[in-house]
Amino acid sequence: MERTFLKVHGSGNTFYLYNTDNENEFNWVELTKWLCQKDNHKGADGLLLVLPSESADAKMRVINADGSEASMCGNGLRCVARFVCENIGKDEAIIETMKADLFVKKETPLFEDIPTYAVEISPVLFSLSSLPMVYGEQTEIRHQVIPEFSSTIPYTAVSVPNPHLIGIVEQEDIENRTHQQNLAQFLNSENEYCLDGVNVSYVYPMKNDTIFVRTFERGVGFTNACGTAMTASALVSRLNGFVEYDVITVFNPGGFVRCEVKILEDEYKLTLIGNATVTASYILDIMDNEFKIVSFDETEEQGQYEKCLEIVKKETASFAS
């Protein structure tokens, strides 16, 4: 049977997107693993499923490249937001995710005519049990040097709702990915700290309103961008005084976004704003666990996004590779 899939990305975080009324239509794990193979049209970071919802305009599920399921994905949510808003003919919507129903809306483009959407990132929890993570008798880790991880880098553990370990680093730790990769691989294998793994991001403060974030994503590896990681990194940077403004520009290897951080006592309102780009439409033939690409048509949207990337590369030339 032939089905149509879109290939989309937010900040270079690439997905296939599929709209269906049947949540059990296919074996999503096997299909996603096949779609995301790097030698299969350059692969992808995961599959976004758009499904009916009883509580919102639509429901989103996120299947990672390794077949595991993420509770949320900020970059993917922007792509789903665009798909749903265009389908219902509105500029805003509510999308059901695993942990919360989230508000999304069309935004003024961040660059030229690139389709741009703002999405709510929630809930925000600092309790180690929410990740889950275990470190001695502590209930939280906030901007703390953990000797078992590094003798110099302060880390913060936070779930939004995906689990994140955020390290604020010097430029040398961004330019050389070895330490981050070794730590992330350790924490995403059998270990005593993060039994279900964790997304590990290193954050380099560039200016009082700008940071650079590189993320090793659980179930994916190093990715061009991770939406919840960028938002969590903006929050951690704001809480610890590395940025001074509520609207923060976040550069990443795949582009840039803006994160709005509003702090009200112990409550946080986080918004992620960035591109929602459709690069191609694919026709797939799916029969049992046999998959075949029948045809595909590329759009012109990626060419526009490449212009944006040229600006990003100039700003981050020494450490974005």
From TrEMBL:
InterPro entries the UniProt entry points to: DAP_epimerase_AS, DAP_epimerase_DapF
Cellular location of this protein?
A: Cytoplasm
Gene Ontology terms for molecular function: diaminopimelate epimerase activity
Chief location: cytoplasm
This enzyme catalyses: (2S,6S)-2,6-diaminopimelate = meso-2,6-diaminopimelate
* Keyword terms: Amino-acid biosynthesis, Cytoplasm, Isomerase, Lysine biosynthesis
Q: Does the keyword Calcium apply?
A: no
Return the protein name.
Diaminopimelate epimerase
Q: Specify the species.
A: Ureibacillus aquaedulcis
